[in-house]
Design brief:
Six copies of one chain form a homohexamer. Chain A contains ten helices and 15 strands. With 337 residues, chain A is α/β, with parallel strands linked by helices. In chain A, the strands form two sheets. In chain A, strands 1, 4, 5, 6, 9, 10, 11, 12, 13, 14 and 15 form an eleven-stranded mixed β-sheet that branches. In chain A, strands 3-2-7-8 form a four-stranded mixed β-sheet. In chain A, α8 (271-285) runs antiparallel to α9 and α9 packs across α10 (316-326). The N and C termini of chain A lie far apart (39 Å). The interface between A and B is medium-sized, with 31 and 31 residues. β3 (27-33) of chain D pairs antiparallel with β3 (27-33) of chain F.
Chain lengths: 337, 337, 337, 337, 337, 337
Amino acid sequence: MYDLLTFGEILLRFSPTGDKRVMDADNFACHVGGAELNVAAGVSQLGGSCGIISKIPAHALGAMVRRKVRAYGISDEYLRPDSRNRARMGLYYYEKGSSPRKPEVIYDRHNSSYSRISLNELPVRLWKNARVFHTSGINPALGERMKKITTEMIRRFHEQGVLVSFDVNFRENLWEERDARLYAETILPMVDIFFCTEETARLTFGKKGDLKKMMKSFADEYDISYVCSSRRTVHSTIDHSFTSCLFEKSSGRFYEEKPYEHIAVVDRIGSGDAFVSGVLYGLIQYSDDPGMAVKYGNAMEVMKNTMGGDLCKVLPGEVRDLIAEHEEDGYISEMNR
Amino acid sequence: MYDLLTFGEILLRFSPTGDKRVMDADNFACHVGGAELNVAAGVSQLGGSCGIISKIPAHALGAMVRRKVRAYGISDEYLRPDSRNRARMGLYYYEKGSSPRKPEVIYDRHNSSYSRISLNELPVRLWKNARVFHTSGINPALGERMKKITTEMIRRFHEQGVLVSFDVNFRENLWEERDARLYAETILPMVDIFFCTEETARLTFGKKGDLKKMMKSFADEYDISYVCSSRRTVHSTIDHSFTSCLFEKSSGRFYEEKPYEHIAVVDRIGSGDAFVSGVLYGLIQYSDDPGMAVKYGNAMEVMKNTMGGDLCKVLPGEVRDLIAEHEEDGYISEMNR
Amino acid sequence: MYDLLTFGEILLRFSPTGDKRVMDADNFACHVGGAELNVAAGVSQLGGSCGIISKIPAHALGAMVRRKVRAYGISDEYLRPDSRNRARMGLYYYEKGSSPRKPEVIYDRHNSSYSRISLNELPVRLWKNARVFHTSGINPALGERMKKITTEMIRRFHEQGVLVSFDVNFRENLWEERDARLYAETILPMVDIFFCTEETARLTFGKKGDLKKMMKSFADEYDISYVCSSRRTVHSTIDHSFTSCLFEKSSGRFYEEKPYEHIAVVDRIGSGDAFVSGVLYGLIQYSDDPGMAVKYGNAMEVMKNTMGGDLCKVLPGEVRDLIAEHEEDGYISEMNR
Amino acid sequence: MYDLLTFGEILLRFSPTGDKRVMDADNFACHVGGAELNVAAGVSQLGGSCGIISKIPAHALGAMVRRKVRAYGISDEYLRPDSRNRARMGLYYYEKGSSPRKPEVIYDRHNSSYSRISLNELPVRLWKNARVFHTSGINPALGERMKKITTEMIRRFHEQGVLVSFDVNFRENLWEERDARLYAETILPMVDIFFCTEETARLTFGKKGDLKKMMKSFADEYDISYVCSSRRTVHSTIDHSFTSCLFEKSSGRFYEEKPYEHIAVVDRIGSGDAFVSGVLYGLIQYSDDPGMAVKYGNAMEVMKNTMGGDLCKVLPGEVRDLIAEHEEDGYISEMNR
Amino acid sequence: MYDLLTFGEILLRFSPTGDKRVMDADNFACHVGGAELNVAAGVSQLGGSCGIISKIPAHALGAMVRRKVRAYGISDEYLRPDSRNRARMGLYYYEKGSSPRKPEVIYDRHNSSYSRISLNELPVRLWKNARVFHTSGINPALGERMKKITTEMIRRFHEQGVLVSFDVNFRENLWEERDARLYAETILPMVDIFFCTEETARLTFGKKGDLKKMMKSFADEYDISYVCSSRRTVHSTIDHSFTSCLFEKSSGRFYEEKPYEHIAVVDRIGSGDAFVSGVLYGLIQYSDDPGMAVKYGNAMEVMKNTMGGDLCKVLPGEVRDLIAEHEEDGYISEMNR
Amino acid sequence: MYDLLTFGEILLRFSPTGDKRVMDADNFACHVGGAELNVAAGVSQLGGSCGIISKIPAHALGAMVRRKVRAYGISDEYLRPDSRNRARMGLYYYEKGSSPRKPEVIYDRHNSSYSRISLNELPVRLWKNARVFHTSGINPALGERMKKITTEMIRRFHEQGVLVSFDVNFRENLWEERDARLYAETILPMVDIFFCTEETARLTFGKKGDLKKMMKSFADEYDISYVCSSRRTVHSTIDHSFTSCLFEKSSGRFYEEKPYEHIAVVDRIGSGDAFVSGVLYGLIQYSDDPGMAVKYGNAMEVMKNTMGGDLCKVLPGEVRDLIAEHEEDGYISEMNR
């Protein structure tokens, strides 16, 4: 019985080392990531038991991914091997920006092993083997086949009483806003925890009014227990601020805290997923205090930004210390020693 | 008017840096290669004017490739950009071996921009714009579409009086021996310079007898001006020997020289193509002395083995010095200074 | 229920990067290793379920170790955290040699977290939770406290019917030959699988006669099911040969195969432990064919030598291919592609 | 017929890698640069056809430079080889600063191959083979010989109707302000496009009044078609702002745009030359809209600052996007994906 | 006769390279440092003759340290070798922070060779062989044995008329505030130059009033010639400001200068010791102008922050230039070339 | 009073990192070397007190060199700073070979700071401040000015009773054999220890007969106390053998030992100088046993080959162990631990 199971594609990220651009690079750092893996890694680091449902090549690149998944304490029980000759990892090339030059992503993820996953290769016990199931809008955006699989998974988990978490994660290079909205409307009635930014609420879902009004309207319309919205302010490629808000339907309360200001960003990839992981961990661990979900969510987002790679690497104590210091008004030492 | 035009796919190679294995790597050196690019690069380095006919993404990875192509003095006049959203570089992962552990290649080249190339996007003047046209058996092995394009290219160049060079380059992971043979039989009548190893002659073409007999039979059967065959002896992953033989049909003569023994191999990828480049350069530059083709071919193969990357990086004088020293019996200094 | 549990210290290895010496280094590669961890990693890579019994700091260095342990698929269920302020990883500095300059090890392992491990912090279920328990003579060599713990562990596993495997692993910088012999004599009656080199048999145990005679005498004297002895021939720092011999008491048979010659050594650290892992895997998986233990043992030793780090990184299929090719007399391709 | 030919020395730059100082370095990144090469690279990247007139050693370092020149799409037709035994590359050592510690340059460029260039080794057709010729005040500052060659080149291009572009580029470590002024006065009557900072106008040329008045006075005094002046504001070593102004004599108009604020500077070397390249590209490509020259000039300066190396590496589309976003008031995404 | 002798432990620092965290690192930069070595290195770089009294292993790691000590021009005359089998370097692991994630130090310094140093292995001539002796409160915090040795050293130097400098350097992870105060009270009567931050004065010594009042009270109470206090303001992990104040008892004057604002911090470790070194150099070299001590102290602190490693690497002229520019109100060039 | 003073140029070596060629490199390792510095470093590492007479820039590159000189324990008392604006380090680019491709050196050493050294800037006490003075034939080969200075130095040391050591070190790229011979004849009467290879004896000096006969004839003709000749056998770029012979005139005896076979060469630069250093150390330390000079000379040559850089990095005990093992016939462990 896992605290959390997530479903999504695992990608390799290739980033030029040093201060090289892709067009001038001859050396690439390789990171393992993917929105739903990032979420599982966050919850696992904080102490939850997690697994990922995905598919990777059976060859050496798949072995590399499996080693990483395990290193983060995530179970690879449902990580299926693809033994076909054409098995491939989806990948993306990432070039760090430097204001005003923006970070750049080039995707190369079509026809990956993941895109061949089938519900038939997953065991029946799976659907009740978790407290929470999480996935994101990237899956249905990958095509009709993945759309069906995603919906079916959500349905099966939901029917077994597993809490369903869904992050819209709208990407305009993958599909149209209208398609994203239509799809979301089909699964939101089965969703218990919903992540959606203000911008997506407004542009994709056509919501009106201020953020809190929009959040509440999602909860009311689809009977969603928790609606969560984060806001990143990008001062420059190396200087962000961050905060978020959580609405609990049962109490009708909004949970917030003061923003983290001037985060010294090392690598912003995966920070949104780290936020989700913190919220889910908070909801799982402190089910009677949703404010903890906000605190963990924000702290995880912040932590992820300060390190390289898609996956947040933390010790639970560090996150607790960061939360405590964020609330502290007095003297804070500048170094831990 | 180019001395040489080649046609083939350009690939990115990702190799783990240091002594890491792919399954444990988090950093990859990225090389640009591909059999026909390697050949063009060799001839260009030696002083011939060369161009490559191929297709690459219009995005930053394509720009990276274009920069490399130009750096080697190869014209990118016929290097077509692919502006589709799904444009991608074909690529392969390469893991260096260490005896008895063998080098390992994982291909990921399906659906590349190259596979979308069309004869229609090439200018009409192309077909008479070269002295020699070179391609290899990798192209027809990539599928029916590439098979047709390759044949049509060979036909057009041949009709315009351009010398056609063809390297069998049989790869059993791409197609069947029987298919390779059937294909070769359709184009060999148009081929002027033919590269084929003893093993391929025997296994793929079902030739009998000793090497020279087989070479001569190709020339006789298909009226091929030059038949060329090389032999690499692998003592260990870091210790090879190499030699080759060239048959000139017009004179009925075989050209050979003593093998290079105990080459200290740094990276063996591309060494076969470097051999082809040396032979083609020799035939172009010393058309009345085919022995020079063998000498240049062998020397280029040897040089390539002693350096990293798919492409041979040499100054023409170095190759001439190596040829001279290989024939020298007396004292040879151990260092150039 | 694990296929294998091992008990031993996990060490950090610091090696200068590039061709630097320790005295001139300012950058170190950090590997995780330790004889018994190496053995568990080998069996786990081959497909056995494994765990390690050890103790590491609760701080970030311990987290680094735990991540590595998990990456290899080894359970960290019995990897105890040391939360003391003085918690430390044992470590060693390793300088690669270049003939005739020898590799050099500087140990710094006293007072480590491992040395504080206690049987009280291990659960009672542990002692019957494995098919095989493995440890080595490094443990009792670390002092009286570790000597007692090691003996008690062996006793408990033995009493629960778990097979006990013991590698003498004599290190003259840790203790005297006489002490090693006296200790071994106390535990050998409980040992089922015994690893001992010819040199150690002769010098430490004072055995006489040829290798096979000595091996048999161990089996007879202490009623040991399997006695195993390996022989590494060091031609130079980068060129080793290797073979081994296994004696099965029940059948009275010796199992051997022809040596692996001229292994191109990249990093010889951990190769002896990789050998042990192959033998144990073979005995576990092919219990009715001890010849497989020798084949797996030799192949794992060879593989480990060809890569960096203390731990062998392999896919099971690779090892099977190496075993098959070692027995092959005909043509073997020089590359996998 | 080139859009642009430039004349100037190509230098190697050696910079300590990582955060090392020169005095503590044992590893250096090597970049190829030089004011006039930088300008040609910028125009070439944007789409203009360019060549460089210079001289480099015939040995391997010259080959390295030639490869880089070609990679940027710059013709090496007029890049002369120096085969003397004493052939050498001019070079400089560069140490990145960190506020308030300033960047530091140590030149080692005397007696380079470039300093031996002669007009006699250049073909007669050269002088009419371009639309624009660009050089800078670094050349005449290198000594009497280079002074004469530079003047003669400007004269020949000017006589053939090629537009002459000149960047004062005053360097006080090379010559006196008075000498720079006297020299400039001899060639300015032949100059069509003139680059001069406010500071140089004031201190070196003794101009009075505000910037625009000074710019106009250059145009009037020497009949210069375009006078261009840029202003970099250095908040810290990693935070610059930048803007510029262009005066068109024929229309009497000044062209400007709002400054780029808080550029996150990675490597400021070559940013001034990138600015010149943008202006020249704009004047060549949009001859009836000088405002485009300012926009391209500013955008290229900004881009160069955000990446390592002397040469700006960009795709034309990126620069157009940056220009568009700089003029945009509304929402701008923080990442391209 | 040295200008300065210091006494303290030399440590190795291991920091993950790149933007890795310790828990994810497999490569570490290794720096040599230690508060009192840092001070000696600063004074030596500025031109003073210095030596360090310490103890290091006789093996290769000790040789590495000795080479570094010599490289900085520090005498290793009193650097004792430890030939025991258990000889070890004290070390610490350092993880760079990124706001709001703080830098992290993990110490592993117990039972080091340094901790075995004895007064008996030092020559008698030592105690009068310097103008100034410096040590810090880290030594007595290491235990009773080191407390006695430190006190005895101070006593001997003091008796021989050598000026004694003492930096409180309070570290709460090493001892209690009360112990630190009690110890300080025993040696302060022998101290001539005293370094103490405002915070330590207030919290550890229980002083009251503003900073200057507290500084003066130390001087009065213990008859200390110079009391020195610095203040670092941490805006973020990469942005500090710094200033300091010196009280001269004989004149009753306080010396200060305007703060250095917005130092772009690369590595803040050792910056406090660099400050001490600047002050000591100033007092030694400009004995009649204590204002120079403040200027050198501040400038050295600032310089250290802008470079990697524990030890400040500077040329004396650079520090003089920085001091001059800090006092300059007019135009300052942004680069030295 | 130094055991050894040497006179010669200090050079920077730039070598491409990894397996890159110079023409493809963008990163260079930087080593400090120079024949006479290499010799001083060897003797200093073995325990002799050494100094170097040379001249380097006063700027940061000179500081880098000075730090290295000191790190090896060599006094920089006679290392003069060059404060001219044009001060420069002599340098060379080195490309590692891989059989049969040979290592390649490109010199760039003209007009260096060293070439401006003058006897007037050296103190008078210098000429009697050493037991041995060593220099090589590289100095007179650098031009007439250096020829005169070298001769005068030899004369002054010789007149003060300092033993003069001279290594012919003939480099055909620097001068003619005839010039080298004529020069040597003028200084050999003042030389006490003479290093000359068999090849140079034969080709440059026109000696006849076998090696020993030639060695003796030098000793007889010029009254030289010790004549020393080494022989390197290059099996491949990574496999050398080495031996040497020393003739003592007073006893008429030749000293030799069996060759070191199959040295695994990492970097052969400086190995000849390491040999000289071992011989000089042996003659200084074991003045009554010239056989020790041969043993130390051979061992140092061997050690240098096994590590990167121009300078041999050893602990004295390692060299003694190597000498002992070279004479050992029995079992030798393959690792020190």
